[in-house]
Amino acid sequence: MTEKDKKLLDRYIMHDTIHKLYHVQHKSLRWIAVHLGINFRTVKKFLDMDSGEFQKYSESISTRNCTLDPYKSFIVDRLNLFQDTPAAQMHDWLKERYPSFPEVSAKTVYNYVMKIRQEYNLPKLKPVNEREYGPLPDTPPGKYAQVDFGEYKLRKGDGSRIKVYFFAIILEYSRYKFIWFQDKPFTSENAVYAHELAFRFFHGIPGFIVYDQDSVFLYDENIGDYRMTDVFDSYVKSRPFKPVFCRRADPESKGKIENVIKYVKQNFLLNRSYSNIDNLNKDVESWLNRTGNAMVHNTTCKVPHEVWCSECKDLQPYVPVTSSTLEKGHKVLSTNKLRYKGSLYSLPFGTYRGEETRVLAQEEDGSLVIKTINGELLAKHLIAAGRGENIVNNNHQRDRSASIEKLSEQVKSRFTDKSGSEVFVAKLRDRYPRYIRDQLTVMLNCLAKYTRQDCDKALDLCLSKGLFSATDFKSILSRVTPIIEINEEVEIKPLGTPQTRLMVNIKPNRSDIDVYQNLFKTN
C-alpha cells in the first residue's frame, strides 16, 4: 500500500470513528476533538459530510497539491526538534529561511502545520505548569478577606444592553460575601464607599484584605514597593485593616474571590433584566440572603451565614466614618496638577496651598470634573484614554504678562522722553520675547545706578543709532558716565553644584571699545 493510499484509508477510518462517537456514543464535539487529537472544526466538518460527500472530498484533497508542500521537510524537521512550536512562529521561520516564500495567509500555514502534526503524530505539547501547589491551612476567623471587581452586560427592557460594574468581597474563613453594583467604572472614592457598605454588612472589619494591583488602589509598584492612591491611602490609615497586594497577573493568589465573581455572573446575573441600579442592589442583597450566603458551600460543606455568625466576634469593631472622612479627596501636587488613574491633569495656577491641599474629582460623561472641597468648580478635562498622559489646559498656566507689564511700566517711568521709552521697550519685546524679563531687569539696574539725565542721553543715542538692546544701553552708560554711587555691596552667592560652578570660568564676549567711541563721533 502506497503512502497516498494509507492516508486515504486513515481519513476514512477517522470519518467513520467521528460519526460513531457522535451519533452512537453521543459524545460532544469538544470531547471527540480532544480524544482523537484533532481540531474541533475538523470534527464538525466531518460530521457535516455523509459517506458520498466525504469520498468526493477525500479524492479532491488527495489529487490537489498544496502551496506549502515544497517546505514540508523543513516543517517536519522543526516540529521534530521543537514540538511546541506554534504555527505563527513556523510562519516567521519559513519567511526567514526562504526569502522567496509565497505570500499566504496565517490560516493557511496553521492548517498545513496541523496537517503535518496529524500525519507525523506530532501533537502540540501542552506547556508544563512549573508552579507547584501545596495545601494551605484554613485561615483563622476574622483574619483575611479578599476583594475584586467584575463587570457584566445586562439586557434592558427595550432590548438594548447596559454594562454594570460590581464590587465583591468575601471573608475567607466563613465564605460570607457582599456585592455592590454601580453603572459606571469604580474610582478610588467609589471603592472606599463600597468598603464601608461591606463592613456594615459584615458587622466588623477583617485584619487583612487581599487585592489585585488595580489602579483604583495603586498608582505605582516597584518590586513590592506599593504606592497607593491618595484617597485609598488616607482611607487605609483611618481603618484598622492592612492591605495585601498580589503579584501582578497572579489571580491564583486570591482564588476565593475569583470564584465569587464567576458565581455572581453565572448565578445571579445570568439572564437577569436591568431596570435601574438601585433595584439591582436590592436584588443582589436578597440573592445573598437566600442563595449566595444561605446555600451550602461546595468546599467547606457549610452554610456561610451560619459560619459568619460565629466569626463576627473575631472581626474588629466597625464604627461608621463620617462623610467628611470619606471625602478627603485627591492630593494636589506642588505643580498644580492632580494625579488620577495614572495620568496628570492640570489645575488653575494657585490651587496648591501646601501639602494638605485636597480636591474632589468625579467622572461625568467621559470628563473629569474637579472641584474644591467646598464644591467650587476648578477644572474639567476629557479623561485620558490610557495611563501616563499629561493633560494640560493652557488657561491654567501662570499668567506672566502681568509681571512683564509691571516691569515695562517701571522702565518707561524712569525716562523723561515717554514716547521714546515706549518705542525702546516695544523693540525689546519684539527682539527678545523669551528674554524680555532679563532685558527689563538690566534696564532697571542701570536706571537705579545712573542719573536720569545720563540715562536720557543714552536712550536718545540708542534710538538714533537703532540700538535696541539692554546690554548696548548699559555699555553706552558705562563708557560716558561714572556710576553715581553703590549703597551696598552685592552679595554673590556661590553656584550650587560642581557642574554649575564650571560656569565661573566661562568668559563672556566683549565688545571693542572702538565700537562705542565711534557712536559719539559726529558725522
What does this structure look like?
With 523 residues, the chain is of the alpha/beta class. The chain folds into 4 domains: 3-119, no CATH class; 144-314, Ribonuclease H-like superfamily/Ribonuclease H (Nucleotidyltransferase, domain 5); 329-396, no CATH class; 401-491, no CATH class. It is 44% helix and 15% strand. It is built from 20 helices and 15 strands. Strands 1, 2, 3, 4, 7 and 8 form a 6-stranded mixed β-sheet that branches. Strands 9-12-13-14 form a 4-stranded antiparallel β-sheet, with no helix packed on it. Strands 10-11-15 form a 3-stranded mixed β-sheet, with no helix packed on it. A hairpin with a 4-residue loop joins β13 (367-372) and β14 (377-382). α6 crosses α7. It is flat. The N and C termini lie far apart (117 Å).
**How much of the residues is beta strand, in percent?**
15-25%
The CATH topology of the largest domain, please? Nucleotidyltransferase, domain 5
Low-pLDDT runs of 5+ residues are: 484-493, 498-504
Mean pLDDT: 82
- CATH homologous superfamily heading of the largest domain: Ribonuclease H-like superfamily/Ribonuclease H
| Helix-residue proportion | 40-55%
Largest sheet: 6 strands, mixed
Task: Supply the CATH architecture of the largest domain.
Answer: 2-Layer Sandwich
Distance separating the two termini = 117 Å
The helix-and-strand class reads alpha/beta
Query: Would you state the CATH class of the largest domain?
Result: Alpha Beta
